[in-house]
Amino acid sequence: MSEPDPVALNPSDLARARELIRAAERVAVLTGAGISAESGIPTFREAQTGHWARFRPEDLASPAAYRRDPEMVWQWYAGRARDVQAAAPNPGHTALAELERRKGEGFLLATQNVDGLHARAGSERLIELHGNLAQARCERCAHVQPWPGEATAPPPCPVCGATLRPNVVWFGEYLPSAALEASQLAFAQADLALVIGTSSLVEPAASLPLLTLRGGGAVTEINPDQTPISALVTLRLAGRASQVLPALLEDYV
Ligand code: APR
């Protein structure tokens, strides 16, 4: 993967990106695994090492897998939850929390990441489209709780007695409709969408920035690599999120 230093980014692109941010009243942000790469969070596939390498992703992250072998799936997520606890937010996450403070109500951050790092960096106007690894939820009732780190197998729900499961969206499952609808509205109404560190391959998140373009807003993509939306966006900044985002806010007071 190419990783140019942001100072090597075209200065006029940087200036234009800063101007778009400053001028926008409504900013919608979509993030993916790339923003957490520099916090050392392995992607789903990167985490499949050692014992886990022989499994296909859908053998670990699907309702069918959980029915077949709940203990194994639980242990896979327990490992990922431990990885995430050991990591810390990076300057990319922090810059987005800062942008939220500047934009206030006109700001929304929708993330596909389940690592919880945006919340730990201080983001509050945040939608975790794919859930959160640091939480478990009940299979039957609405109960959500912090991940029970001591459990080596799925424990019963303390409210209704059904089985707890990881609070993440699995292959073949729908995104929570309220979260998706709120995100779609924010992107449709945004003057500016920032698309950061996502391969823009997984729907429905991948289409969110297209709603902004359709509504007449601008889209800035921050990603060292090209993606399927690169040809459509208003502006592309080919750099790392942890360097480009702080640079964009540098003189924004
Ligand atoms: N800064 C910005 N972008 C980066 C960086 C970085 N430092 N490092 C990598 N990237 C980019 C890569 O070029 C790639 O385009 O981040 C993107 C990561 O893509 P994916 O690994 O496909 O992650 P994501 O788009 O979040 O995946 C979406 O797919 O695996 C499922 O449900 C899972 O939420 C996930 C969804």
Structure description:
- 36% of the residues lie in helices and 17% in strands.
- It has 253 residues and is an alpha/beta fold.
- It has two domains: 151 residues, 3-Layer(aba) Sandwich (Rossmann fold); 83 residues, SIR2/SIRT2 'Small Domain'.
- The strands form two sheets. A six-stranded parallel beta sheet has the order 3-2-1-7-8-9, sandwiched between helices. It has a three-stranded antiparallel beta sheet with strand order 5-4-6, covered by helices on one side.
- The protein binds adenosine-5-diphosphoribose.
- The site of adenosine-5-diphosphoribose (APR) has 22 residues, from helix 2.
- Indicate the structural class: alpha/beta
Following the backbone from N to C, one meets helices and strands in this order, namely HEHHHHHEHEEEEHEHEEH
Classify the helix fraction into a percent range.
25-40%
CATH topology value of the largest domain: Rossmann fold
Bound molecules: adenosine-5-diphosphoribose
Span from first to last CA?
33 Å
User: What is the name of the CATH class of the largest domain?
Assistant: Alpha Beta
Strand content: 15-25%
Number of domains: 2
General shape: elongated
Helical segment count: 10
Q: What is the CA-atom radius of gyration, in angstroms?
A: 19 Å
